[in-house]
Amino acid sequence: MIKAFVQAIPIIEKIELAGYEAYFVGGSVRDYLLKKDIDDVDIATSATPEEIKEIFTKTIDVGIEHGTVVVLYNGQSYEITTFRNESEYEDFRRPKDVQFIRSLYDDLKRRDFTMNAIAMNREGRIIDPFSGCEAIQNKLIQTVGEPRERFSEDALRMMRAIRFVSQLSFSLEEKTLMALKENGHLLKKISIERKTKEFEKILCGKNRQRSIQLLIDAGLQAFLPGLDKESEALLKFSGFECEKLNLTEMWALLLYTLRVPSENGISFLKTWRLSNQKMKIVAKIVANLEIRFSKPWSELSLYQAGAEISVSVEKIYQVVNSDEKNEQMIELKKRYQDLVIKERSDLAITGQDLISWKDETGGPWVKELIEKIEQAVLIRKVPNEKEAIREWLYTCNLK
Ligand code: ATP
Ligand code: MG
């Protein structure tokens, strides 16, 4: 067994000592069988959240109504979820109420895919009532039970299937694929936040190309914000070689491929309910990408974009032109490093200086003049020194 599991064995032992069952389950067992790295182990138990809180001294309530308690143990935190049954589904969405149950089998049965419905006890024995190990061996994604029924219970599972294609490079088992193609419309009922989470995992997976193609093939893009009439652009998007792009860069590339003008970027991203911070970064990348496509980098455009955005822009530019050049990136970073000023506060003068030199009250003219000075300093027309700038303003009659 690997370290992450070994460290958690005392937790399972404590729960068992109190008279309950507990197992490793879910993504951690799947990834362990796939010999992938594991960050967090998931534990499922027959004990209720209240019973777990009696066993451990340090716990945090994170989702008691869903049966999850976080236990802090030896400096690590563990999510412990009570066996549950989700038989009551409302309106193609995951259930509001869950019933706690005492049977591992029934807990595994409510899970989405056979590869995610495997449990492992503290000795490393695998409990696999739905042949998940075989599916893993065959690199197949198949639902536990009838795919049509399982997708009708919770339509998000269709997007989860596709995101696992992206992350694991597995294929969809035929019946699961058929059900996916027939039931896309059920995604209408799913909250955008849940869809966004899976879509972002699709964007970041190694096999994003095939998974986006699958999304289009199955017609699921019709139920995603802003993508309903965009299968052609999306197909083009899936064709880019973009292993090196991070999540915000992927969003920016998507907006670029969909030809969303930069001024509409924020409203597009709002429909996906991205965080304000993420929206701002993506929109800034898109705006600077437009400039990059119209002309090569200048001192001013580098300055305006800033260090991180300019690198992101260049990465995307190279992806779109299928022309990855490391030397160019190094050169760009060097040019940025060599800029005389990196931000407005680096300028040797302030708006206050201009106001006192001109002996006038402030107004929009201050900002305009500062921008002119920035440009002159950036192209090294004027040294970034107070006196030199003042003199330059006189000679140009700008003061
Ligand atoms: P990841 O490595 O991305 O965390 P994961 O399989 O652990 O993948 P989670 O979203 O963390 O995915 O879910 C944990 C487990 O809960 C899954 O492995 C699966 O057994 C179950 N599960 C999650 N979402 C659903 C769902 N919508 N329907 C049924 N079971 C689900
Ligand atoms: Mg997980």
UniProtKB/TrEMBL annotation:
Residues noted as binding Mg(2+) in the record, renumbered to the chain: D40, D42
Domain CCA-adding enzyme C-terminal: 248-393
InterPro entries attached to this UniProt entry: Bact_CCA-adding_enz_type3_sf (IPR050264), CCA-adding_enz_C (IPR032810), CCA-adding_enz_firmicutes (IPR023068), NT_sf (IPR043519), PolA_pol_head_dom (IPR002646), PolyA_RNA-bd (IPR032828)
Protein residues bound to CTP: G27, R30, R111, D154, R157, R160, R163
A Pfam short name: tRNA_NucTran2_2
Protein name as catalogued: CCA-adding enzyme
Required cofactor(s): Mg(2+)
Membership in a protein family: Belongs to the tRNA nucleotidyltransferase/poly(A) polymerase family. Bacterial CCA-adding enzyme type 3 subfamily.
Domain of life per record: Bacteria
Domain tRNA nucleotidyltransferase/poly(A) polymerase RNA and SrmB- binding: 170-229
Species of origin: Pseudoneobacillus rhizosphaerae
Gene: cca
